Q: What sequence folds into this?
């Protein structure tokens, strides 16, 4: 499993009441860098020996977030732009961004595992006689290929964008109605 899917993250946040209602305020966060053995405080805009919240005069206490908590709080792009870029630089940030020329760090470790699991699940469903319909809504080529593979047949796969999504669901509903009449 990848390092960004589970377990403790490098990100810490202050539990001060000031930040409780605003997870998007970057000042409450600190990111740990093992090579420096320091934390970058976004409130102080500097590297320190302790995360923001644990230093003298800092409000609250610093709490280490798990990777699932990080991804439940922010997108990978927000993490890249608001956390990684200020602490490091744009080059490092770009290794995290989903629209980067480089494969995003968090994706490069998990995509193959998740794709393989998706194919296993689809194959198991099809082996049980379940008709698998898939919709690729404004999906990238890799995602479309995965969904095409997962579908029971080419007729069970839809690649759509915008309002075409309604047509895809209508097509699936129609196919299911026909299945009920014939099976």
A:
């Amino acid at each position: 499993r990848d390092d960004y899917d589970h377990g403790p993250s490098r990100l810490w946040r202050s539990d001060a009441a000031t930040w409780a209602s605003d997870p998007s305020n970057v000042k409450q966060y600190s990111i740990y860098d093992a090579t420096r053995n320091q934390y970058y405080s976004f409130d102080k805009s500097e590297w320190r020996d302790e995360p923001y919240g644990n230093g003298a005069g800092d409000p609250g206490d610093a709490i280490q977030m798990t990777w699932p908590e990080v991804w439940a709080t922010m997108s990978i792009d927000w993490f890249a732009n608001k956390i990684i870029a200020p602490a490091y630089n744009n080059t490092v940030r770009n290794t995290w961004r989903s629209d980067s020329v480089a494969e995003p760090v968090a994706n490069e470790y998990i995509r193959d595992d998740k794709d393989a699991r998706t194919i296993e699940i689809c194959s198991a469903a099809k082996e049980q006689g379940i008709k698998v319909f898939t919709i690729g809504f404004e999906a990238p080529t890799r995602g479309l290929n995965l969904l095409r593979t997962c579908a029971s047949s080419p007729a069970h796969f839809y690649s759509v964008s915008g309002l075409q999504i309604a047509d895809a669901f209508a097509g699936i509903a129609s196919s299911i109605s026909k299945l009920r009449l014939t099976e």
About this structure: The chain has two domains: 1-128, 131-183. Residues 100-109 have pLDDT under 50 and may be disordered. The radius of gyration is 22 Å.
